[in-house]
Amino acid sequence: MNTPVWQAGVNRPVGSKEGSMAEEAQRSATGITWLDTVRARLYGRLLMLLAMGLVFMTLAGLNLIDPWLDILAYAVIVAIAAVVPETSESASGVAPGASTTELAFADAVRHFADALPDPSIVIDRRSVIVHLNGHAARHFPGVVAGSPIAFSMRFPQLLAAIEAARLGASQTIELHQTVPTETWYKATVAPLAAGDPLNDGVLVITLQSQTEEKRLEMLRTDFIANASHELRTPLTSLVGFIDTLLGPAANDKEARERFLGLMRGQAARMAKLIEDLLSLSRIEMRQHMRPTAPVELGALLREVAEGLNKLAEDTDTKLRVQAPDEPVTVSGDRDELYEVFENLIDNAIKYGADGDTIDITLSPDAGRRGFDAIVSVVDHGVGVAAEHVPRLTERFYRVDADTSRKKKGTGLGLAIVKHIVTRHHGVLTIKSQPGQGTRVDVLLRK
User: Fold this and answer.
1) Which of 3, 172, 178, 181 is in Cβ range 3.0-4.6 Å of 288 for a Cys bridge?
2) What separation in angstroms does the CA of 119 have from each of 183, 290, 388?
3) Tens digit of pLDDT for each residue in 362-379?
4) Which among 169, 32, 35, 198 has a CA at the least distance from the CA of 103?
5) Domains of the chain from N-terminus onward
6) Beta pairing partners, 427
7) What does pTM read for this prediction?
């Protein structure tokens, strides 16, 4: 059986300055870090390192070598294996002895993969990754050149498609992953050069993102289901009022004015509901893309509180904002974060106004590793029973449906908050007890 010209490695001949420059250029093009290269070398020498480890353990067990010297010697060997490239590696990452035509073909495939707009991965006959383009490195940071693809992409259907493609026919499958965010990809696995004995078994995997299309499909379904359910009540009321005005109250001026006022309220409720549904849909469409613009939280919170002061005064509630004098900046979308805190403070005014004061506190010390700021919105109102707290961020979940509708709530405010915070890779926590008010914390990062 002929040996394929493709080999995974760091693509540098020993002691070559030019090879080092080529290695650095490839790292830059693919997004592969020095740590990834070290990991790839260790993967390639795994059997050798295991064998050496057994030898040193045997020598130590027979008291033929000092245990500490044994450990030191083995650590040196591992370090050398991680740092020194294989002597068989060439500047093109192909097997030694390859012809000029084979080298040119390998380089052409690498350049072609790098030019593709979708993530692209090249694997050899052993299903070891020999090349991945920059898009693949960004979309799948756990994928490392030089390691078996089964180590980093644990999709049974992908591994089955790879085996099927080795028979010569291209395979197309759908990959679905839920961590860190829910994404979908259409994966195509195709032989690189079917019928070529030197490249037999080499496959190219391209992954086309279908996340946007899937989210649109789900949002369309959810929107129709939710809108039809929530709009049914106000529409029924409107039809009833219209029938009354056309019938018994046709000539009753007092009844007409009263019913027109009620109809206006129902129409406003439907408009607010549709606005919230559209807002939620827009957020979910971009759920997998974390915003990165700098947002100064202190100024933002003061702006939100100023906009809600009139509503607070109408309920005899005072908004108290506490923020440090120095800027507290996080990464995010300013409009979306404005919507988060507007919803939280608006909820506190509506359902926690009995406490007279609503405290809005910003601290640069989130108290949790990985986060750089925490915003707390605390009311001192009636609070919520413990069994309701985990469900408060569900769509259309209401602790008291009648009270919520009277206060013109749509049941979507906290669902919107949760989705925005998730998109920002933040954390939302809610704590409440009857008679002791409610505390909502939003943790964000730079």
Assistant:
1) 181
2) 14, 19, 43
3) 998 767 788 889 999 998
4) 198
5) 17-209 (3.30.450.20), 214-288 (1.10.287.130), 290-446 (3.30.565.10)
6) 443
7) 0.48
